[in-house]
Amino acid sequence: MNREWLTRSKHSWTNLRLGSAEFNKPGEPPLVDCISIGHPSLTLKEEYTNCVVPTQVLAPEHDEAYTSELKQHTFETFLSRSVPFEYRHFPGVEHSCFTRGDPSKANEQDAMVKGKNAAVAWMREWLHPTS
After folding, report:
1. Among 7, 46, 48, 59, which residue has the least CB neighbours within 10 Å?
2. What is the pLDDT of residues 43-80, one digit of tens each?
3. Which DSSP category does 8 fall into?
């Protein structure tokens, strides 16, 4: 058994894995209907490539873990396939802003609230389809 995942078991990686083709096969009910990931970290390019469910990415401007190269790969991957995708860029904030919401850091609390609202709206859109 490959135990490499134990060292990377973070929120973003887990969501991308649950949204992968491995767990969401055509003709079968999906394991998850959609995913939302915030300040992705410890993710690999292939995890974006393998994701087949509607995906929302909440990305702070400053994030050493979610590099420009990985951001570009995210865009290219989702735009080249027929998977619904939403990318929200949060200027002026850094990695972990969506969990900390530190009022002493400029724009961080605002980013946390806007990120939460965006995630709730995304889930409402995909988990509660309109008739």
Report:
1. 7
2. 889 999 999 999 999 999 998 888 889 999 999 999 99
3. G
Q: List residues bridging with 51 in a β-sheet.
A: 20
Order of all β-strands in the sheet with 35-38: 35-38, 55-62, 85-94
**Are residues 74 and 48 in contact, defined by beta-carbon separation less than 8 angstroms?**
yes
| Tokens of residue 54, six digits | 């509607």
Q: Would you identify the CATH topology of the domain 4-23+30-127?
A: Rossmann fold (3.40.50)
Mean pLDDT (the chain, rounded): 85
The C-alpha angle 36, 37, 40, rounded to 5 degrees, equals 165
Global confidence as pTM: 0.84
Counting every residue written for the chain, the total comes to 131
Residue 65 amino acid letter: A
